[in-house]
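FAQ: What does a ligand-bound record look like?

Like this one, built around pyridoxal-5'-phosphate:
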Amino acid sequence: MLKVGKGANAPPFIVMDVIAAANARQAALPPNAPSVIRMEVGQPGTGAPAGAVAAAMAALRSGDALGYTEAFGRRSLRERIVGHYRDWYGLDVPLERIAVTVGASGGFPLAFLAAFDPGDRVALTSPFYPPYVNILTALGIQPVILEAGPETRFQPSVAMLEKLDPPPDGLIVASPCNPAGTMLHPDELSLLAAWCDGAGVRLISDEIYHGLNYDSPITTAASLSPHAVVVNSFSKYFAMTGWRVGWLVLPEDLTRSVERLAQNLFISAPYISQVVAEASFDCHDELRANIARYRRSRDHLLQALPEAGFTRLSPAEGAFYLFADIAERSNHSTAFCARMLAEVGIAVTPGVDFDHSRGNRFLRFSYCGPEEDMREAAARLKDWR
Ligand SMILES: Cc1ncc(COP(=O)(O)O)c(C=O)c1O
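The answer part, i.e. the structure of the complex:
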């Protein structure tokens, strides 16, 4: 029998299976039946902002070859990203440390391969964004799971890290995070960054939901540690999921190795997407209107879901997720979510995707869909038990 690599055992990203089930249910509905409400995906209901789409059309008509770019992306886009750090965080990041990637997803293998070796241990809290664990595992790196709960808003703390003996080689944090929608407040992220630097632990900070924070301010790990790797993307605040473009802010010691990896693994992010990304920096008004919509949906759900029996919700500080503890209603979140889809036509994601040991008592609502759908979902759930 031919050998099959261990990486081939990477588990599925279960939300993709939920998407398929919701599509199948929608396709099977009679023509005038109420549609399935999509609360399973973390994908903005709107597409790229209008100004960015216009830039894409102009690029397509220009006759340019739209070929490869340098592995770290077009200089003009990297300059805009440098400007973004100045505008949002008051931070000067040298252009050499900015790498444009194929979404945040394309940034993870680059960061993990450059920073860690097979057998290294990388800590992260559960619940987590599933690909962190799945990519680490596929690369032979060992995820070290720190179980977090409402006491730390599902976020890591220095106390949790100090219990690890030996200390891990790396720590992944995300703020705002997926699936809990909670944040590390600036003082908390600062303590974690200082602990990592003191212990020689590489901090990887997923900042993809920056800009989608409702009450608490954001801070970037790039301003707290020269050794941190920051992962970001145009998929969420910039609402450009399908364009597949993101970026890394790299520490100096990893810059060249990530560039070599990017040359070999991806050559470059798609040219057209880089054009669109660049133009999206001029579309903040439109993007802020999206946030106002998410905030209204969040506020409505925070009031309506408890009335519908979802009383234990994570504090919804950012992103567009509500993580619900459903222990009082079910100890089998996959079956519970399947029943919700079948009986009231609402697709949500079972917690097992995000937490392998406790996930059966949680589910995740995503509220980035159309505002009227989010209100309709709350109404459908009101009398559903
Ligand atoms: C926390 C987190 N990181 C990364 C990603 C991947 O984003 P991208 O579309 O930029 O690859 C997602 C997507 O949902 C996410 O929730």
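Follow-up question: can I read anything off the structure? Yes, for example: The chain is about 40% helix and 15% strand.
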